[in-house]
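Let us practice reading a record.
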Amino acid sequence: MTCSSLANYAVTFKFTGKSAHAAAAPHIGRSALDAVELMNVGVNYLREHIIPEARLHYAVTDSGGTSPNVVQPYAEVTYLVRAPKKQQVQEIYQRVENIAKGATLMTGTSVEIAFEGAASNLIPNKTLYDAMQKQILEIGMPTYTIEDEQHAQAIFNTFSPEIQASSFVGLKKEDAMQLKDKVIADLIPSVLPEFIMGGSTDVGDVSWIVPTVQCTTVCMALGTPLHTWQVDSQGVMPIAHKGMLQAANIMACTAVELINNPTLIAEAKKEWKERLDGETYVSLIPEGTMPPKR
């Protein structure tokens, strides 16, 4: 993996108002659902005025009820704020929080803010990913059976034409050509230039403490979109097990290579310090936050 990742901050805004009959006495009510909707409208207007690399996601997790003839006294919305740098996330989140407070002023409601989670941006390390790439090339790809191909094809057939067409996005042209008409990525692709991936990972926090490297291996049909039932269904199949063992082998061999070459470790630490450029790790988790009770 030659990429960095987006830092993120996740919170739930829990609005409380006052219930009332929406026809007989609406003037008595204070709609928490209105507050959620106004907050979302405000945040959508904010999008124009933040850096283009940032992302703002939300989900209404409680609309208050199912009766339209009742002023909803409670509603909540969960937000995920993402940006390439932690400081950017903090600055954008503060503006989102101010919008939530503005929504309470417009609706006569109150809001409780519940922290859900956070992740720092990933600090890449070329010294380490060059060392890992060497092991990837030496270990090579697993062998796939006819049954692996048939199952991958069955999964691939469930994708929409748009997803099938996007299977090669991010690959170099020569790699994409070799994978044309295939449903399993059975080759080691060219190393990509560094980029910022559109997702987040808690490994990012680790990379601020120590030089870090990762790899990805084939565990599913080519083009499988993440966070879908197709991912779940393939996690128990031989293709996933082969990918897991390949990744474990790559990581172990990379570790052995580093242990046997202290100079590589020194170079990785030097690069890591240069990339941090004097910054030190500060967790995005608010001080005093306790793990949620399950």
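A brief commentary: The radius of gyration is 24 Å.
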